[in-house]
Amino acid sequence: MKSTLHPQRVDGEPFALRWVAEVDLPVGRVVNAPGTIGPMLEYGVLTKVLVERGGVWTWLDGAQKWTEHGPRIRDALGVSLELDGWEVEEGSAELLRLIATEVLEGELKSYVASHGGHITVEGATATSLRLDFGGACEDCPAAGATLHDRIEAAVRARYPLLESVTRVNDGHGATSGWLGLPVPGRGR
Amino acid sequence: MTHHHHGPAAPTQPGVGRVALVGSPNAGKTTLFNGLTGLRAKTGNYPGVTVARYEGAVETTAGPVVVEDLPGAYSLDPISPDEEIVAAVLDEADSLSGVLLVIDATNLRRGLGLVAQVMQAGLPTAVVLTFVDELVRRGGRVDHEALSRALGVNVIPVVAGERRGVEALREVLADPGSWDEPPFAPPTEPDAVTGWAGSVLKSAHYSQPDPDSRTGRLDSILLHPIWGTVIFFATMYLFFQTIFVVAAPLQGWIEEGFAWLGEIARTNIPIGWLSSFVADALIGGVGGVLVFLPQIALLFVLISLLEGTGYLSRAAYLMDRIMSTAGLEGRAFVALLSSLACAIPGIMATRTLPSAKDRLATMMAAPLMTCSARLPVYVLLVGMLVSPELGWGPFRAQGTIMFGLYLLGAASAMTAAWFFKRVIGRSSVGLPFYMEMPSYRLPKLKTVGISVWDSCKAFLRKVTSIILLTTVVLWTLLNLPVRSTSDLLEAGVDPSDQVAVTAYTLDHSAAAWIGHAVEPVFEPLGFDWRVNVGVLSSLAAREVFVSTLGQIASASDPENPAEALATMTHDSGPHEGEPVFTAPTIAALLIFFVYAMQCMATLGVMRRETGTWKWSLIAFGYLSVAAWLMALLAHTVVGLFV
């Protein structure tokens, strides 16, 4: 068995792990999975499984420990990902929010910080995302647009259903000027 | 220096955090350790093995933390004794508060294999990423923050020569308990590890560095089958030239210093026997060995320069071809190479050989490699054989003979390995030989300095223990039985003539009796009883030969012991009156020292490594016979030309 995957912790969710792996399934919530992941989900060892492009999110039952189940779930996932029979409920606002948060706190964190801001996810639907730019790049519309594009591209690479990313103001003052306007999505 | 007898990881200071540095050889671990601890490192040994153990205190914001520099290990599979130690220390996880994994960024894929193994120990772990600058220079890339997320542990990049990374590490070291913890350990099964590492690398946007163009260009010449070999031998030749040319003046000064001290002792100590003990045994004998400290230091400067630049690995690669003609693999050469310093680490390095037969053959050959203990003997004898003026331009005859002796040692080791391979039988399977070719790097001055300092300390330790002890025993044997005035008068010696009394006591001492007793054995080689005593005493340690001759010489002519040695004549037997140190005899002595197994410690290690005295006895037997026969041959051949 040679499966190319590794787990990463999810900030603030001790029972969640994101498995970075070669996954080419519809993105959304897993209803039924092949291999051993299916029964694990059925019997509640795993309480929730979400699939993104290039990763799988799993939630372990609160009474269990990763040190105990982690290796088994890793092996099971490695096998299951090779099999057909995944049933996925396409589109998930929760998944989109998680991915966006992860992108902002992870791969783009230092990039965002270099633009002098802290961006948070304000809200998400199954196809759209609302971000709070928290004062980033207010003085620099051009850099702001670049930043916006990069976030959108990074999230869409992992969640192709994303249609639009809009910004809300950082809260001090009304939505003013072009900053408050929704940016047209470039969904497929 | 501390010796630990209670297990490999006994904490030195209770209550103080203890962090182990783990990493593959050449990952920059020692440089990092030196950067963290300064020169406050302590050296000791692991119980039962002679692999050096280094630890030092690091000042952090939360007080001192003890950092232990574990031996380099590619993996925790205990193939070599080094890896065995690392595995043992990590096994005793209780005594460690954390592990710092030092990983070479230019070789990250293989480094992750070690990461996966170390993380199994469940200790707080952090990764120090070294050579990131070299990775970038060679067109590679790694996102250390993404790597940290993928591994689930802190990743701290450090760049050689920059304080920043080391300061960041100091902060990290303060509290291993607060380090990021992965949800659970990476897989252990090889295929799964490969998959895990691949996935981690992809997440970290890792791209391999291009092959180092500088290294590539150098290697195209230095690893060339013909040019590479020519350059290798030229380098070695220069190596021995340097030892003679550079160290000689230093040695001269130390010699003068000891002669001066000896004079002071002789004139100022009123008690006769004490004056003789201090002047002859301590200053003439032990001091006579200490004189060679510059050569020892220089030998290790050159070895650590060759190692630090990465050239030594190339030498091993070139020699692999020659080794294979002896039926041995490159790993055996690495073991033989270690024997240039001392046969003991060489014999221990045979533990990397998977075949028991190859291992025995290499062990039998290791004592023939010219170890640093032979250096003082060679320098002394070569100095008596040819004058330092003899030579052409910058090339001295002395250095050339020295080079020849090292070459003869190496060639004899190969022959012995080939012979024993034949006798013991062929090994069934040859496992592939893997050796890393590190990029050429400028060696760190501090690293070279520390390695030389350690070797000098080891030499001084040896001088003040086994060599001092043997010298004292010999002094006693050379001065017993004590002659009374009536004895002297009876023998026709004037008791007031100090020189005559000394000569009489020496010539009729217990040591002389032993020296005369073995005369029939060594007579064909041209040795007289005094040389015999020297040869016999050198069974304890080779350098004792120098101290014994030093004692005898300084007893017979306190003013000028070197002159006394050179003009020493046979005092009995068929050659009475003829000089002892003729060219054929010196040649015979040199060749004798090339082959003779004069090191009890080596025999002891052989016994420990093979589990039986059988192989120690075989080594002692065959090397003694070879030494005698080859010395006779040298005596005869050189005799034809003189």
UniProtKB/TrEMBL annotation, chain A:
GO terms for biological process: iron-sulfur cluster assembly. Gene3D superfamilies: Fe-S cluster assembly (FSCA). This is Fe/S biogenesis protein NfuA. Residues 102-165 form the NIF system FeS cluster assembly NifU C-terminal domain. InterPro entries: FSCA_dom_sf, NIF_FeS_clus_asmbl_NifU_C. GO terms for molecular function: iron ion binding; iron-sulfur cluster binding. It comes from Tessaracoccus bendigoensis DSM 12906. Coiled coil: none annotated. Pfam families: NifU (PF01106). May be involved in the formation or repair of [Fe-S] clusters present in iron-sulfur proteins. It comes from the Bacteria.
Automatic annotation (TrEMBL), chain B:
One of its GO terms (cellular component) is plasma membrane. Residues 16-179 form the FeoB-type G domain. It comes from Tessaracoccus bendigoensis DSM 12906. It comes from the Bacteria. The chain crosses the membrane at residues 226-250, 270-293, 298-318, 330-348, 401-420, 459-478, 581-605, 617-641. Residues 1-21 are annotated as: Disordered. This is Ferrous iron transport protein B. The keyword Transmembrane applies. The keyword Membrane applies. One of its GO terms (molecular function) is GTP binding. Keywords: Membrane, Transmembrane, Transmembrane helix. CDD domains: FeoB.
